[in-house]
């Protein structure tokens, strides 16, 4: 079963300034999931810009802000081998992800229930690949490879909280996020 909506990147044509303009144009309703995925598909980010926001941590992956506006935020996430998120949703925010370097494993889950979150599907994404997570979907991201991973994430609106799900039962917990998640998500 497919996990999220994956796309393969072709020719990107939208500058960061153009991306910001397009995101502002979509206010106040905000983008649809398909529109957000299309914009990140077209977004041109220089290798230097992305690499300038790469900052690995030993204990947990790192979230590094590139830019934030009222309607979205753009981050670079840096992952060492074996680092992963919890099973979570984005508390109503849309999310689009592009792999910059390395290989990302993305798992889609149910949002809980009596038995807890259940795995619906998994996909492995290579550099240049895209995926997205809807406002009502739960997922988990992992670096299962033996190499570092760098991903680019857009959240609309900016991500403030996530809801973390258990696989052992119906429990969930709202977690407030910071840009470094070492203490928030293991």
Q: Which geometry do the CA atoms define?
A: globular
How many helix segments? 3
Overall structural class, as computed from helix and strand content, comes to mainly beta
Distance between the termini: 27 Å
Q: Say how many strands there are.
A: 12
Strand content: 35-45%
The unreliable regions are 1-9, 180-186
* Major sheet details: 6 strands, antiparallel
Query: Overall mean pLDDT score?
Result: 86
CATH class: Mainly Beta
Query: How would you write the strand order of the largest sheet?
Result: 1-8-5-10-3-2
The CATH homologous superfamily is called: Jelly Rolls
Query: What is the total domain count?
Result: 1
Radius of gyration: 15 Å
CATH architecture: Sandwich
Helix content: 10-25%
CATH fold name, please?
Jelly Rolls
Please write the string of helix (H) and strand (E) elements: EHHHEEEEEEEEEEE
Give a brief rundown of this model.
This protein is mainly beta and about 190 residues long. It has helices at about 15-25, 35-40, 45-50; strands at about 5-10, 60-70, 75-80, 85-90, 95-100, 105-110, 120-125, 130-135, 140, 150-155, 160-165, 170-175.
Descriptive account of the structure:
The structure is a single chain. This protein is mainly beta and 186 residues long. The protein has one domain (46-176): Jelly Rolls (Sandwich), CATH 2.60.120. It has helices at 16-25, 33-42, 47-51, and strands at residues 7-8, 62-68, 73-79, 87-89, 94-101, 104-109, 119-125, 129-133, 138-142, 149-156, 161-165, 172-176. The strands form 3 sheets. It has a 6-stranded antiparallel sheet, with helices on one face. It has a 3-stranded antiparallel sheet with strand order 4-11-12, with no helix packed on it. A 3-stranded antiparallel sheet has the order 7-6-9, with no helix packed on it. Strand 11 and strand 12 form a beta hairpin. The two termini are 27 Å apart.
């Amino acid at each position: 079963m497919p996990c999220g909506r994956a796309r393969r990147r072709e020719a990107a044509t939208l500058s960061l300034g153009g991306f910001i303009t397009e995101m502002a144009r979509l206010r106040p309703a905000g983008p649809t999931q398909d529109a957000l995925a299309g914009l990140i598909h077209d977004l041109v980010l220089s290798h230097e810009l992305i690499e300038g926001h790469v900052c690995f941590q030993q204990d947990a992956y790192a979230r590094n802000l590139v830019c934030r506006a009222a309607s979205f935020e753009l981050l670079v996430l840096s992952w060492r081998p074996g680092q992963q998120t919890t099973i979570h949703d984005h508390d109503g925010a849309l999310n689009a992800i592009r792999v910059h370097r390395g290989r990302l494993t993305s798992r889609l889950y149910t949002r809980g229930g009596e038995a807890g979150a259940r795995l619906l599907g998994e996909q492995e994404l290579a550099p240049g690949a895209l995926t997205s997570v809807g406002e009502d979907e739960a997922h988990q991201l992992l670096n299962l490879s033996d190499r570092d991973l760098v991903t680019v994430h857009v959240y609309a609106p900016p991500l403030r909280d996530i809801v973390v799900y258990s696989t052992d039962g119906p429990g969930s917990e709202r977690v407030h996020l910071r840009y470094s998640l070492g203490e928030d998500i293991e």
